[in-house]
Amino acid sequence: MKKLAIFDFDGTLFDSICDVVICFNRVLEIYGFPTMTREEYIPCLGGNIDEIVSLVLGENSTPQNVEEVKETYLDFYNSSKKDLTVPFPDSLDLLENLQDRNILLAINSNRLNYSLNEFVERHFSGIDFTAIEGHSYPNPSKPNPYGVNRVLEKAGVDADEAIYIGDSATDIKTAENAGIDCILVRWGYGNQKDFENPHVLGVVDDMSEIIKYF
């Protein structure tokens, strides 16, 4: 029986890409780099902030450029209202349903911890998360299982009692590295190749379908 649901954040619980695109494109314009479309950003997402910036910069990716663009982006992003970053429909209903069933809830993301806590407090203040594990330097980021292992320890459950719920190849690899089952959602930033990965226990089209795995 599964006792713990570990959720990815971006593309799984929250639709966040619009604010990311706006802030990144502002920064790219400042430094004279080409801006990108929403579709062009999607393959760059999933890693930690340094990895994302490096992919966004492409051939312009140098250690100096990555650091400058990252710091400017974080300044813009952190000071913005982020009004376009909202939970996917029925996210809160799902979490409340799982919580009512005494399923432990956690978040594991490559988003920085303070950012995760900001959105959780804004939108999910009534949810009692057992753990919220973002990326915190110098600890390794996903797909390293460091964050998942911390969640399992805090929850006091074994790997076979947990399910990782995500939307991308990074989430699949994170679950695989941690030795836990994984399900993917179709509304995020994954693709058909991800959905067909043999480690994926199932793919869901609607939040309500997640309940059947618990």
What does this structure look like?
This protein is of the alpha/beta class. It has helices at residues 17-30, 38-41, 49-57, 63-79, 91-100, 113-123, 146-155, 169-178, 192-195, and strands spanning 4-7, 14-15, 86-87, 104-112, 131-135, 162-166, 181-185, 200-204. A six-stranded parallel sheet has the order 5-4-1-6-7-8, sandwiched between helices. It has a two-stranded antiparallel ribbon with strand order 2-3. Helix 1 (17-30) crosses helix 4 and helix 3 (49-57) crosses helix 4 (63-79). The N and C termini lie close together (7 Å).
Defining key terms:
single chain, 214 residues, alpha/beta, six-stranded parallel beta sheet, two-stranded antiparallel sheet, 9 helices, 8 strands, 42% helix, globular
Alpha-carbon distance between the termini?
7 Å
Unreliable stretches (pLDDT < 50, length at least 5) are none
Mean pLDDT: 95
What's the total number of strands?
Answer: 8
Q: Biggest sheet, strands in spatial order?
A: 5-4-1-6-7-8
Report the order of strands and helices: EEHHHHEHEHEHEHEHE
Anisotropy-based shape: globular
Radius of gyration: 17 Å
The assigned structural class equals alpha/beta
Question: Proportion of β residues?
Answer: 15-25%
Please give the structural blueprint.
Blueprint: E1 4-7, E2 14-15, H1 17-30, H2 38-41, H3 49-57, H4 63-79, E3 86-87, H5 91-100, E4 104-112, H6 113-123, E5 131-135, H7 146-155, E6 162-166, H8 169-178, E7 181-185, H9 192-195, E8 200-204
Parallel strand pairs: 1-4, 1-6, 4-5, 6-7, 7-8
Antiparallel strand pairs: 2-3
Helix pairs in contact: 1-4, 3-4
